[in-house]
Design a protein that fits this description.
The chain is mainly alpha-helical. The chain is 64% helix and 0% strand. It has one domain (10-74). It has helices at 10-22, 27-34, 38-49, 60-74.
């Protein structure tokens, strides 16, 4: 039977990533403890390192750059 899609809030993701970054436990051990895939933890770590797990939205200039890139790729 397939599992239902689970959603994790930003504070939970940050908490798990900070545990991972301390190096006190392995990626595999954290994945088992929180019953998530190790690949998901890697994605959360990358998101944390690029600031995407912040409560604040990215600066407006990043939105403008994203729109520009999308417009240029459609040309």
């Amino acid at each position: 039977m397939p599992r239902c899609k689970r959603y994790f809030n930003l504070s939970f993701k940050r908490q798990v990533v900070l545990e991972l970054l301390t190096g006190e436990t392995t990626l595999a051990a954290l994945a088992r403890r929180y019953e998530v895939s190790s690949h998901l933890l890697i994605q959360w770590r990358q998101a944390y390192q690029t600031g995407r797990l912040d409560d604040q939205p990215p600066p407006r200039h990043l939105h403008a750059l994203a729109r520009e890139a999308t417009a240029n790729s459609n040309d």
